[in-house]
């Protein structure tokens, strides 16, 4: 049996700016080390780490494993040659291997906990393709323990200490503890910490490099790495972000409300995860951008969406509430209802967008940040208007039906968003020909397809196939500026037309929607195949060899440094983007194969790291 582990996730259980989930320490042992040793003991034949960055690769050199560990950038090149456990999120495991092997005898299954929550794990039988499975299974005895809050992070570490196996790693290396300190046996102290005299610590977790002044008293706290706690400070159930400085006069540090507007959503306050109160304030703050459309991806986050809508209505705004939908559908609602902004709730993340579905611009981000800081939800004004937008979703579905030709394919849908999956099943049901499996992203914007005759067809390949539909409609296909540069050459070869997105084409781009709506895109693909009389395999065979890889990395470079690198870069196949108010750099590389794109991506990663070292 083999294990495939995703390693591209940043930790979201504590307010750490640059800590991969794989290296998140539990009793001073990184999560990935816990997991790899565990699966080795359980008899796994090998492990594959997906999207592991240089820090994870360097860490693997420091641990001893008998089991081989390989690296891969994506699932596209992997197959389940032996029964395979795919973990889409790392965890602290307690597994029953007998239960696993019994599940591996049939088709691929997505695993759920006994309470119905996703385990972010899949089992694939030997010889299968690693597509998102249609079947589900409920785990009875196996446990995938994920950590989502600082409280869970602290409590799980204390449970590990009770096993006594990890007592030796309770206090890290290079720690200096002053005189007359009281530190209980449930407190974990990271490497190179400095603790002053007469310090009292109960049930706390201290990251690497934390400094605590004399006479401080901390109970049930999570202090992230390199934070400084001044002498005489009193903290109870506090979560202190990394590199913070807490002075004694701020003895209620856990009540401070620094504002975060990272690229992955609105997270404000300590601790750093979303609550109904955060959603209320976020909805109110969004009204600084104008009237907004609100929707959510999962039924269990409906309360977040209602809270956000309530906050927005309290500020006098007009709200269009779409209910459970995809981001692609919400963009359609925004355009139909003439909204100025979108708030889409994916899981527990509150994701703000411009009305066109693109990330907020500099000015919009600044206005939203200022509104969040002002605590606008507490300044109740005249009530606004609350509109239900479900009818707009029905109009969207009717538009999709008008595009679809008579069915000639047997189509199955894989999507984590249950509402979108059911809609797609209604739209595409009824075919009896070639069987095609569609994998839709949870936000509905991206799609890929697989059939036994054609193999895997990527999102950008499907966009090019949709050209046949627009050629028959005598319309140019509108593509973003960063789409693969070979698209125009292919369009010319089939006598079709492509236009790159300009401000004056924005409404037409939203109406076509093929680049922001996976279902509309595939409807145009089917329409193009019907019009030309081609099979999917024949259409794919006409496409040029092209591949786009996007990679994100955290950087200490300034926006000016990034702009300088961008001006120096004359290679049109590579684009560098640094979103507003973010320390992330997005590398987008165009090539004719995954291998070539990955190689170029690695070259530019090294170039960015070199620029960082020169700057420091």
Topology of this structure?
Blueprint: E1 2-6, E2 25-26, E3 29-30, H1 31-41, E4 46-50, H2 54-60, E5 69-72, E6 79-80, E7 84-87, E8 92-94, H3 97-103, E9 109-112, E10 118-124, E11 128-129, E12 135-138, E13 143-145, H4 150-162, E14 176-177, E15 182-183, E16 188-189, E17 194-195, E18 200-202, E19 205-206, E20 211-212, E21 217-219, E22 222-223, E23 228-229, E24 234-236, E25 239-240, E26 245-246, E27 259-260, E28 267-268, H5 276-286, E29 292-296, H6 302-313, E30 318-324, H7 327-337, E31 341-346, E32 349-354, H8 362-373, E33 385-388, H9 390-403, E34 409-415, H10 418-428, E35 434-440, E36 447-451, E37 455-457, H11 459-465, H12 467-472, E38 477-479, H13 487-493, E39 498-500, H14 506-512, H15 518-532, H16 536-542, E40 547-554, H17 559-568, E41 574-577, E42 584-591, H18 594-615
Parallel strand pairs: 1-4, 1-7, 4-5, 9-12, 14-17, 15-18, 16-19, 17-20, 18-21, 19-22, 20-23, 21-24, 22-25, 23-26, 29-30, 29-31, 30-33, 34-35, 38-39
Antiparallel strand pairs: 2-3, 6-11, 7-10, 8-13, 9-10, 27-28, 31-32, 35-36, 36-37, 40-42, 41-42
Helix pairs in contact: 5-6, 5-8, 11-15
Short structural summary:
The protein is α/β, with parallel strands linked by helices. The chain is 31% helix and 25% strand.
């Amino acid at each position: 049996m083999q294990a495939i582990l995703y390693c591209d996730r940043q930790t979201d259980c504590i307010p750490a700016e640059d800590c991969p989930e794989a290296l998140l320490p539990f009793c001073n042992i990184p999560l990935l080390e816990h997991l790899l040793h565990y699966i080795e003991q359980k008899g796994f034949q090998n492990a594959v780490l997906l999207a592991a960055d240089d820090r994870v690769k360097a860490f693997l050199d420091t641990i001893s494993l008998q089991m081989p560990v390989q690296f891969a950038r994506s699932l596209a090149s992997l197959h389940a040659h032996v029964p395979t456990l795919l973990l889409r999120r790392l965890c602290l495991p307690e597994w029953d291997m007998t239960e696993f092997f019994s599940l591996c005898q049939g088709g691929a299954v997505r695993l759920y906990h006994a309470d119905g929550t996703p385990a972010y794990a899949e089992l694939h039988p030997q010889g299968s393709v690693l597509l998102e499975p249609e079947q589900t299974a409920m785990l009875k005895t196996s446990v995938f323990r994920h950590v989502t809050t600082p409280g869970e992070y602290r409590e799980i570490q204390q449970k590990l200490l009770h096993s006594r196996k990890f007592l030796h790693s309770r206090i890290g290396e290079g720690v200096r503890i002053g005189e007359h300190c009281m530190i209980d046996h449930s407190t974990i102290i990271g490497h190179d910490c400095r603790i002053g005299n007469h310090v009292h610590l109960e049930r706390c977790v201290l990251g690497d490099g934390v400094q605590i002044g004399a006479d401080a008293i901390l109970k049930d706290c999570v202090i992230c790495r390199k934070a400084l706690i001044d002498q005489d400070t009193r903290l109870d159930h506090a979560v202190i972000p990394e590199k913070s400085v807490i002075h004694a006069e701020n003895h209620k540090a856990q009540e401070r409300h620094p504002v975060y507007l990272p690229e992955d959503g609105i997270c404000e306050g300590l601790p750093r995860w979303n609550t109904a109160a955060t959603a209320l304030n976020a909805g109110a703050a969004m009204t600084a951008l104008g009237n907004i459309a609100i929707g959510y991806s999962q039924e269990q986050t409906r309360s977040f969406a209602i809270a956000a809508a309530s906050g927005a209505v309290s500020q006098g705004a007009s709200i269009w509430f779409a209910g459970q939908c995809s981001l692609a559908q919400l963009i359609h609602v925004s355009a139909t209802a003439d909204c100025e902004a979108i708030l889409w709730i994916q899981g527990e993340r509150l994701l703000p967008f411009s009305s066109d579905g693109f990330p907020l611009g500099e000015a919009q981000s600044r206005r939203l940040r200022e509104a969040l800081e002002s605590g606008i939800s507490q300044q109740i004004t005249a009530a606004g208007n609350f509109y239900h937008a479900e009818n707009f979703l029905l109009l969207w579905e009717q538009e999709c039906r008008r595009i679809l030709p008579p069915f000639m394919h047997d189509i199955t849908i894989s999507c984590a968003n249950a509402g979108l999956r059911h809609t797609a099943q209604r739209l595409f049901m009824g075919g009896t020909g070639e069987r095609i499996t569609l994998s839709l992203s949870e936000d509905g914007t991206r799609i890929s397809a697989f059939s036994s005759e054609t193999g895997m067809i990527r999102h950008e390949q499907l966009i090019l196939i949709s050209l046949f539909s627009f050629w028959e409609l005598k319309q140019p296909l509108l593509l973003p500026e960063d789409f693969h540069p070979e698209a125009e050459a292919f369009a010319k070869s089939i006598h079709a037309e492509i236009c790159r997105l300009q401000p004056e084409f924005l409404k037409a781009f939203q109406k076509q929607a093929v680049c922001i709506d996976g279902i509309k895109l595939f409807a145009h693909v089917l329409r193009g195949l019907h019009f030309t009389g081609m099979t999917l395999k024949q259409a794919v065979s006409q496409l040029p060899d092209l591949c786009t890889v996007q990679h994100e990395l955290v950087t200490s470079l300034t926006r000016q440094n990034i702009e300088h690198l961008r001006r120096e870069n004359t290679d049109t196949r590579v684009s560098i983007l640094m979103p507003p108010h973010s320390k992330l750099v997005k590398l987008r590389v165009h090539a004719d194969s995954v291998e070539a794109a990955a190689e170029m991506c690695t070259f530019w990663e090294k170039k960015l790291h070199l620029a960082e070292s020169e700057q420091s």
